[in-house]
Specification:
About 40% of the residues lie in helices and about 20% in strands. A hairpin with a 2-residue loop joins strand 24 (about 555-560) and strand 25. By secondary structure, the protein is α/β, with parallel strands linked by helices.
């Protein structure tokens, strides 16, 4: 539970290393150096603490060569000391998958190679590293050792996904050999690492191997950190782990993340807002993650368009993102850094954003202050409606699985239906929605569920209730061919290489909104072709209460000491009219509401049943 964790973190990249990396990533742009230096010291820590935060993700290792980065390590030691004085604990940042190509790094042989023998870009001036290179792994171990010995309270591994532009494996001889040996051990005969992903044998073997390499490395580094300080906290960036195929490609797996780490942090682009009349929200992320959390903290840092494109957000968006997380028994990591605002790079701790900080502090005072509502707003999840998380089918059969899975959740949320996402714990579930599943382990889980089941588009069993079948059948007929998948990957590689290596092509691609369309690939903004009415009518009887409103709301519910706690989060930028409809003899005992500029953001109803 949120109140049990008492973990309220901020992304706070600051200091000389952050100034330097911004110049590498975005050359020629202005940087507020004073704000960046102060942000990682006492004045920044005090302002974070005043907003109600008690943890900060701070930079130790951006990937510069050691002769340059030693300045950053000394600054980090000062950050740890001064943040501790102000009551904040500190994560130390590890650049897990790439380095700046400069200085002594120029002669290193640890770089990942594409299928043509070329290094693989990561932004400008940086290249991806090979995940199986021994020297690279030893380098990571030295970074982890330096962070813990500097007095940090946690270690944070960033960019474990490798590349946010899609499928970018390393094809070096060592990776090819290790992959073939691994695949043979599974009984697969493969030529080598695939050049694109599909449902073929090479792709299945690669995804399993990539996941194993990633989490073996993180597990070893975590053990090293804990051998130095048994109390150190481990986290990593599970980028887009719940909503995007990018995480699947990279080997990011929440089951492993919760096994290896003390908490999970999911970076994505789901800060609540409207986008071309579609509502963006982060609730699916939180609920999917909770299906695997086993009581560990679920946290997320949601952006809008991402690094280099986001100015400081309107205050309401921060409040909505925080309220949505808390209503889902999760925590929003505040994005305190990497804002490009009014033509320069800045931090949320700058003087000009005092009003933003005050409003966040005010909401936190209402939520978790001395008389905060968090002390009794949680409890056991009461929802009887659940949707199965088809993790392995999403991994190996994404195109045939993802759309019904996300569409059903979107409609449940839109219609004010509280639901859970489940994977291996079906306690309290009376009706289970089952997306298309194709893996044996998932088939067994569903066979063993004794409650009512509704299959979404497809069922591998006979005599089951199926909704959306005709629409789904039409969709799967248009699944991409092997030739199309290969061509898309070739074009993706060409675009990727041209963007980072040819300034003229980069200008043309930016003019054509290349990054914007790439952003749409991993931001949940799509509409879907399924009719919601039948599904909603089938699940409605399993929720005794309902909410009618003229706006988009997030609802969740908990039971505590015989009282039902119903959270309602308003994602509109206006006042929303709503009616809470209860069964006879149920009554509202108390309503607690946080308002901003005349309309509520977060409301909690206490209902006796």
């Amino acid at each position: 539970m949120v109140e049990k964790w008492n973990h309220f973190p901020v992304y706070m990249w600051a200091g000389p290393g952050t100034i330097r990396i911004n110049r590498v990533k975005f050359p020629g742009t202005a940087i507020d150096e004073k704000v960046h230096i102060e942000g990682g010291l006492k004045i920044g820590a005090r302002r974070l603490n005043q907003m109600g935060y008690n943890w900060a993700y701070c930079t130790y290792n951006w990937g510069f060569p050691p002769e340059i980065e030693k300045e950053d390590h000394e600054y980090f030691k000062r950050t740890v000391s001064e943040y501790h004085e102000e009551g904040l604990k500190v994560f130390g940042y590890v650049q897990f998958s790439n380095v700046v190509f400069d200085g002594s790094h120029v002669t290193k042989r640890w770089y990942a190679m594409d299928q043509y023998g070329n290094k693989i870009n990561y932004y400008s001036g940086r290249y991806l590293t090979c995940p199986t290179d021994g020297e690279w792994r030893q380098h990571l171990a030295e970074i982890v050792k330096g962070i813990v010995e500097a007095g940090a309270d946690g270690v944070f591994f960033d960019n474990v996904f490798g590349s946010w532009f899609g499928f970018r494996p390393c094809y070096c001889d060592r990776c090819q050999r290790q992959f073939r040996e691994f695949a043979e051990g599974l009984g697969f005969k493969v030529k080598g690492i695939p050049e694109y992903l599909s449902e073929n044998v090479e792709s299945r073997a690669y995804l399993i191997w990539r996941r194993r390499v990633l989490w073996d490395t993180l597990s070893q580094l975590s053990k090293l950190a804990r051998s130095i300080n048994p109390n150190v906290i481990i986290s990593s960036n599970s980028f887009e782990a719940c909503l995007s195929k990018l995480a699947v490609m990279a080997g990011v797996d929440l089951r492993d993340a919760f096994r290896v780490q003390d908490l999970v942090m999911i970076e994505n682009h789901q800060l609540p807002r409207k986008f071309q009349n579609l509502q963006i929200f982060n609730t699916m992320t939180y609920r999917i993650a909770h299906a695997h959390s086993s009581g560990k903290p679920v946290t997320s840092v949601p952006y809008m368009l991402g690094i280099g494109a986001d100015a400081v957000y309107p205050i309401r968006n921060y409040l909505q993102g925080m309220a949505e997380a808390y209503a889902n028994d999760s925590i929003m990591v505040l994005k305190g850094t990497e804002y490009f605002h009014n033509g320069r790079w800045t931090l949320l701790t700058a003087d000009e954003f005092e009003n933003v900080r005050k409003q966040i502090a005010d909401y936190h005072s209402w939520f978790k202050g001395e008389n905060g509502v968090w002390k009794d707003c949680y409890g056991k999840k009461t929802g009887k409606i659940a949707i199965f998380h088809p993790y392995d089918s999403l991994t190996f059969h994404w195109e045939r699985t993802y759309l019904p899975f996300f569409a059903a959740q979107h409609e449940l949320i839109r219609h004010g239906i509280d639901y859970r996402v489940v994977w291996d714990n079906f306690d309290g579930v009376e009706i289970l929605l089952v997306p298309p599943i194709f893996e044996e382990t998932e088939l067994e889980k569903i066979k063993n569920f004794g409650g009512k089941k509704i299959f979404l588009g497809y069922s591998p069993f006979g005599n089951e209730k199926i909704v959306w079948k005709e629409t789904y059948d039409r969709l799967v007929q248009s699944v991409k061919t092997e030739e199309q998948l290969m061509l898309e990957q070739i074009l993706s590689l060409l675009n990727f290489s041209a963007y980072f290596n040819d300034p003229n092509w980069r200008k043309r691609m930016e003019k054509a909104n290349f990054l914007f369309f790439n952003y749409l690939n991993y931001c949940y903004t799509f509409s879907h072709p399924f009719e919601a009415e039948e599904l909603i009518e089938l699940v409605k009887p399993y929720q005794a209460w309902s909410i009618e409103s003229d706006g988009f709301l997030i609802v969740s519910s908990f039971e505590r000491d015989g009282t039902l706690k119903i959270h309602v989060v308003n994602l509109e930028d206006r006042q929303v009219n709503l009616d809470l409809i209860l069964p006879k003899n149920w009554r509202v005992e108390k309503v607690e509401s946080y308002n901003y500029e005349g309309s509520f953001v977060h409301r909690i109803y206490s209902v006796t049943t």
